[in-house]
Amino acid sequence: MNQGFIALSPADLLIAASLLLITGFLSWRLQLGVESRLLIAAARSTAQLLLLGLILHYLFSTQSGWLIALVATVMLAVAGYEVRARQTRRLRGWWGYGTGTLSMLLSSVTIALLTVNVLLQPSPWYHPQYLIPLLGMLLGNTMTGIAVAMDTLGREAWSRRGEIEARLMLGHTASEAIAEIRRGALRSGLIPIINAMTTAGVVSLPGMMTGQILAGGDPMEAAKYQLMILFLIAAGTALGAASAVLIMSRRLFDPRQRLRLDRLAS
Amino acid sequence: MPGLAVKQLQREGLGPVELQVGAGETLALYGASGSGKTLLLRAIADLDPNQGEVTLGAHARNKLPAHRWRTLLAYVPPESHWWAETVRPHADAWDSGMLQALGFTPEVLDWEIRRLSSGERQRLALLRALSRQPAGLLLDEPTANLDQDNTHRIEALVRDYQRKHQAPVIWVSHDEGQRKRVAQRVGRMQGGRLQ
Questions:
Q1: Any alpha helices (H) in A200-218, and if so which ranges?
Q2: If DSSP codes are grouped into helix, strand and coil, which group holds residue A41?
Q3: Residue B83 and residue A171: Cβ atoms within 8 Å?
Q4: Which of B11, B18, B72, B123 could lock B50 by a disulfide, CB 3.0 to 4.6 Å apart?
């Protein structure tokens, strides 16, 4: 039977955290050299999630539209930074940051807004209990797809410059010259979400559904929510990765259709 | 007659360069490596940022979309790159007469690129460029990897093409004998300038 919600005590969390010691011991024993990074990552997630919990707690009580907008902006800004950091050959200057961030704004933010306004319709529509978690889910997942697509595009354009220029020399347009690489980049950005949808519920129990069930929710309701989220993420990733790849591949050429790899940081 | 005229062409490490090549004429270029021969040809083809005017017959480079310009004036680099697995997809139409003139049978079109020798690639790269029917040619050491027979085949093929299309040609060559055979005029590049 449904047991309802079991609250976690600080002691529960401590026990879970102590499991990290095993990982640390392994890293030390096998000389993986990731002990300090592991520790920092664990500390970061602790601080970030507790802080988020506090902020959301406060947001739920005030429901200030401006504050919600501020939190959403910060989330978007950090996601944009993360996308940039995950690329080996990224665009120089503001383009490197702007392309990923704009693509996430176009995909995640619009889809989150669409969802609360058309699908869920909480009152008010910007109710933080819905908008913020949705946006977080979307940003977190589209971020991966966009970063992978942009990273692939940058690395491929760099390593296959000979092919691209050979096409330009033969009178192909810039768009024709990079079309194949662009397709490959977009495909690699979409593979993770396609795989996630394929194995959802069979191999992996998606995080959100797990959370909802653990928190005492009805499994069928959890499944429906998870499905909606998967569809939204797939659409958001496709939209975001496509716009990122389009903007970035245009930026790799100038108006005279020259390949401008000097616009990529090496 | 579509002659090639280059005015005040410059970029970092190059120029300003002034030159003219008449219709059907060949200008041979030579110079130490790093003297700017490749930079010059790439700048004429508008592959790198540069300033200056280039015209081919009635066509001004800066008034044409870049891909149209590069169709009109083909640059063939010393090292060729290929994007598909076999030879055929790299051109819309392969001229069997030209294939034969360079010692190939039509079967070559189904060969895999990675199995081609560097000399075969170089010859096919020239054919690939000629298949777009350019009005002018920029050839960057087109016979560098070739034996004497194939070198002469390339020279004859370019000469025929040039006669038929009245095409101006700039031909970078390290071989003095070749420069005498193919060119009416010879220029030396030094420090990014044409002497």
A1: 207-214
A2: helix
A3: no
A4: B11
Residues in chain A: 266
The answer to whether A171 contacts B132, with C-beta atoms less than 8 Å apart, is: yes
Please report the residues numbered 128 through 167 in chain A whose beta carbons come closer than 8 angstroms to any beta carbon of chain B.
160, 162-163, 165-167
B79 touches chain A (CB under 8 A): yes
pLDDT of residue B145: 84
pTM of the model: 0.87
Residue B68: C-alpha distances to residues A76, A92, A174, B72 (Å): 42, 29, 12, 6
Q: Determine, for residues A256 and B46 on separate chains, whether the beta-carbon distance falls below 8 Å.
A: yes
pLDDT of B10-25, one tens digit each? 999 997 999 999 999 9
Q: Which of A42-46, A184-188, A257-261 is predicted with the least confidence, judged by mean pLDDT?
A: A42-46
Q: Roughly how many angstroms between the first and final C-alpha of chain B, as a whole number?
A: 26
From chain B, the residues in CB contact with A171 under 8 A are 67-68, 70-72, 74, 132
Please give the CATH topology (third level) of the domain spanning B4-11+31-188. Answer: Rossmann fold (3.40.50)
Collect contacts of B144-147 with beta carbons under 8 A, ≥24 apart. Answer: B144/B78, B144/B174, B145/B118, B145/B119, B146/B119, B146/B122, B147/B119
Residue-averaged pLDDT of chain A: 91
Listed residue (B139, B11, B17) closest to A262, CA to CA: B11
Give the SS3 label for residue A170. Answer: coil
For residue B26, the cross-strand partners are: B169
A256, closest residue in chain B (CA to CA): B66
pLDDT (tens digit per residue) in A115-172: 999 988 988 888 888 898 899 989 999 999 999 999 999 999 999 999 999 999 999 9
| Residue A204 DSSP class | B
How is residue A6 written in tokens? 């079991």
Do B182 and B26 touch, CB atoms closer than 8 A? yes
What pLDDT, in 10s, does the model give residues A189-213? 999 899 888 888 887 778 888 888 8
Q: What is the pLDDT of residue A28?
A: 87
* Complex ipTM > 0.85: yes
